[in-house]
Amino acid sequence: MKSTETETATNQVAQAIATHGRPLWAAHIPYQTRQQVPTSEIGRMLATAHRSPDSVTRADLYADLKDWCANNVYAEVTVPMLATVSGLSKPSVRKFIDDHGDMFKQVEKRSWEVRDPKSDRALAKK
After folding, report:
1. Which of 92, 95, 98, 121: disulfide with 88, CB 3.0–4.6 Å?
2. What class is the 56-117 domain?
């Protein structure tokens, strides 16, 4: 009987995660139901879950921009281009570039080359 309750709770949690995304799924499932599902199972479901559009924060946008830069090393970029890619405002992108000087190398007055800071440091040590 316990396994049936656990399976039912797991199905409810999975459906809420699929419908509402993270982190809003928790608001739609009672605490007792969430407690019946193993934490490792919830973690596995959340790893593949989409992010709720209402819950995207500035930190998420910065993290997405860092990921984009990591995947587009040596690309020549401009502030408007990064603003479009990231969803951040142009002043926020300029501050991001200033704060992460090791990720960007200025090639012209208003364009930068995306760099990989780890490989740059490794080359500098040699």
Report:
1. 92
2. mainly alpha
